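Course assignment 3, question 2. Fill in each field.
Student: A.L.
Task: Predict the tertiary structure for the chain below.
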Amino acid sequence: MTGSLTPASVERRLPTACDYYMINAHNICASQTYKYVDKGKTMQQSYNSQAPKKPTNVSINSDLLSKAKSLKINLSATLESALIKIVNEKQRELWREENRDTIASYNQIVEEHGTFSDDLRSF
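Answer field:
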């Protein structure tokens, strides 16, 4: 079978410092990313969902408000849901910006040296 891996076909070698650096960089990046991406599951909340509610005044288009009320739309729940999405999106953008140099550096190392599994994968 061409391209399949067997114990005899995999050359054993000692890990290099570069291997350790890439593994560590991946673990650091992955642990940070896990906060934002959870493989399709519910995203870890970026705020305390048990915090008490606080009354707030907002200004809304009067026609839109009357239509929302006539449709029995819960304004508080709708605003909170929209804010959750916006806050999470902004936090992801901020995290990407804060980690842009580290990610670029890691990608450069992978481009130059590959990854530890390049010789092991069959795709």
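Instructor remarks: Confidence is low (pLDDT under 50) at residues 32-43. The CA atoms of residues 33 and 39 lie 11 Å apart.
Grade: pending
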